[in-house]
Specification:
Layout lengths: L3 H5 L4 H10 L9 H12 L2 H9 L3 H11 L3 E3 H8 L7 H7 L8 H6 L5 E7 L2 E7 L2 H4 L23 H10 L8 H15 L29 H7 L9 H10 L3 E2 L7 E2 L1 H9 L2 H13 L13 E3 L8 H12 L8 E2 H11 L15 E3 L20 H14 L1 H4 L3 E3 L7 E4 L1 H6 L18 E2 L4 E5 L4 H8 L3 E2 L9 E5 L2 H9 L4 H11 L6 H14 L8 E5 L3 H8 L2 H4 L5 E3 L2 E5 L3 H10 L15
Antiparallel strand pairs: 1-3, 2-3, 4-5, 6-8, 7-10, 9-10, 11-12, 12-14, 13-14, 15-17, 16-17
């Protein structure tokens, strides 16, 4: 830190005389330079310095010690805790006499010359700090911080007994979710089966404009693939996080507008690991990821500008460090935890205590991630709407998605509890599940070609089966089950990739050994190999048109022709059921309104 003479040299002569008066020291010097030397010599007498600090008001003495221990603190953060330092010129200072009229603790220190202010560079940022001059600091005894051997109280409090009881009843079942481990297998299988070209600009979260943060320009899945995957993921809202973490683990590579590519030498060991091991890999990747920016995904916030950047890694690690003090397995109050973090470490994501330079707005309800129309959320008074909202989102989303916490399903009081996996990530317990993997379950076959994969089945088997089949949404009754269907179209796709029927039968004989339906299914597969498709049961709707000429026109219209299937007569055509809504919209754009219901009774 700069020494006392350098600090005093920045003061005008009138302020130097005021400091001398508060020290009980008369100044004989006639110039500012002489006054600096005379005053510094008096202030650096050990007995006088110690006596003056000892006589400070309690609030000012506490503020001095909190600043003297580290030597310096960001001005904004220090002033927020100990009172502002009002900027005044000599005339206003003489008129208002702030040192005598209800000064803040910060001003008490300032007008006694005990602190200075200067700009320092910290972690690439140029911020203004308050500090205690080194030579003055060495003369004054500073009480040590609270005894580190005495553990601090846990942050917050448990849920109220009635809310905890309700949460226990509603959360009966496994203590932690492995949904993320299962979903990662689904995502890898999808990217193996379907050619998906990366899309630049973070299409998955569709923020506009692009947020000024690490990872905001990372390629993502096009919207149509995100919508398709939503049918097969247990936690579809976590898809952007899954994609980021699989890339961080080196299981995927991509370039803008190029297909995602799986890395076989890394994917296979990942799939052959236990579910708990996959979950651990994902959780540790999230904990250490600088590319996943949690703040940018908090709903209700919109981001502007390119002149500011937050540090998602530092913020996440600060929250996890405090979370480690929460008792594992105990239902804990989310509002109380957020309040405790605000009291103990409010600047967890703003090291310089700067609450004014981030361009964050309250997003409009109709445009939750667009920076238009909402008020700017600046100042510490908006801590709960930005910083507090981030903490609540971390608990309710990434920590829950990754099976690290359970969230209390009660409206009386929001709460959470650390799972065994969460305790392990926070070094509160061992990853015991790695040494005791779940029992292996075999595939369940049906002669019709339906294959049901229990959640406890080897992930590598499900990954391989996904390459050979049509996918169906997972079933949740009695434990998650992933159903697939061996259809002629799926078998044809597999054949084009060099996967033969004998290989498929060999796979089923291993993964569903001894199943009673295996002989009949194997026979059906051999018949398909010999004869090709012999029957088709199609789930379609019929589009009837007024005249054959209208159908002929639609067949020649680029926006419509790919939605039309086989002709069922001169003025009727089959349409795949899932594309009926898309066709209705395309016809409306051409000025053709349609009668009838969409699939499932919904109307366009």
């Amino acid at each position: 830190m700069p020494d006392l003479r350098r600090v005093l040299a920045d003061h005008d002569l009138a302020l130097l005389r005021l400091i001398a008066e508060l020290w009980g020291q008369g100044l004989a010097a006639g110039s500012q330079r002489e006054a600096v030397d005379e005053l510094a010599a008096a202030m650096l007498q050990p007995e006088r310095a110690a006596a003056l600090v000892a006589d400070l008001p309690p609030a000012a003495r506490a503020a001095f010690e909190t600043l003297a221990r580290p030597g310096r603190q960001p001005l904004a953060a220090f002033a927020r805790r100990h009172g502002e330092l009002r900027a005044m010129g000599p005339a206003r200072r003489d008129r208002e006499k702030p040192w005598a009229n209800a000064p803040t603790a910060t001003e008490t220190l300032w007008y006694r010359g005990l602190i200075g202010r200067a700009f320092f560079s910290e972690a690439g940022r140029h911020e203004e700090y308050l500090f205690v001059p080194d030579d003055l600091r060495s003369l004054v005894y500073v009480a040590p911080a609270a005894d580190a051997a005495v553990p601090a109280a846990p942050p917050g409090r448990p849920l109220l007994p009635s809310a905890a009881s309700a949460a226990n009843v509603a959360s009966a079942g496994p203590p932690a979710s492995l949904a993320a481990a299962d979903d990662s297998v689904t995502l890898l299988a999808y990217l193996q089966v379907i050619t998906v070209r990366a899309e630049a600009g973070g299409a998955l979260d569709q923020r506009s404009p692009a947020p000024p943060a690490p990872g905001s320009d990372a390629p993502a899945l096009p919207a149509r693939h995100a919508e398709a995957l939503a049918r097969y993921l247990r936690q579809p809202e976590a898809l952007p996080l899954y994609l980021t973490l699989l890339r961080a683990l080196g299981l995927l590579t991509e370039a803008a507008r190029e297909p995602f590519q799986l890395i076989p030498e890394k994917v296979q060991p990942y799939l052959q690991a236990s579910p708990a091991a996959r979950l651990r890999a994902l959780a540790e990747a999230w904990r250490g990821s600088p590319d996943w920016n949690d703040l940018l995904h908090v709903p209700g916030l919109a981001f502007e500008g390119v002149g500011w950047r937050n540090d998602p890694l530092a913020a996440r690690q600060a929250v996890l460090a405090l979370l480690a003090a929460v008792p594992a397995g105990v239902w804990w109050s989310t509002p109380a935890f957020v309040t405790a973090l605000k009291d103990r470490q409010p600047d967890f994501q703003r090291p310089a205590g700067d609450y004014d330079s981030w361009y964050i707005r309250a997003a409009l309800p109709a445009q939750p991630h667009r920076a238009a129309g909402g008020a700017y959320l600046r100042g510490f008074e908006n801590w709960d709407r930005v910083d507090g909202a981030l903490v609540r989102w971390l608990i309710g989303q990434p920590l829950r998605w990754l099976g690290l916490v359970e969230v209390a399903p009660t409206a009386a009081e929001p709460g959470f509890r650390l799972t065994p996996y969460g305790a392990a990530l926070l070094d509160r317990a061992a990853w015991d599940a790695d040494a005791d993997p779940s029992p292996v379950a075999a595939l369940d076959l049906d002669p019709t070609g339906l294959v049901r994969v229990p959640g406890a089945a080897p992930a590598y088997d499900r990954f391989q089966l996904a390459r050979l089949t049509d996918w169906l949404p997972p079933e949740a009754a009695g434990g998650v089950v992933y159903p697939y269907r061996l259809s002629p179209a799926a078998l044809a796709r597999a054949a084009r990739k060099g996967i033969t029927v004998p290989r498929i039968i060999q796979f089923l004989e291993r993964a569903a050994a001894g199943h009673s339906a295996l002989p009949a299914l194997a026979a059906a597969l051999r018949r398909w190999e010999h004869n090709g498709p012999e029957a088709a049961l199609l789930d379609t709707v019929v589009l009837r048109l007024a005249t054959p000429e209208v159908l002929d026109l639609l067949r020649r219209t680029p926006s419509v022709r790919d939605l039309l299937g086989e002709s069922l007569g001169p003025a009727a055509v089959a349409v795949r059921r899932e594309r009926a809504g898309e066709l209705r919209a395309a016809l409306a754009a051409l000025g053709l309104l349609t009668d009838g219901d969409l699939p499932g009774g919904a109307r366009a």
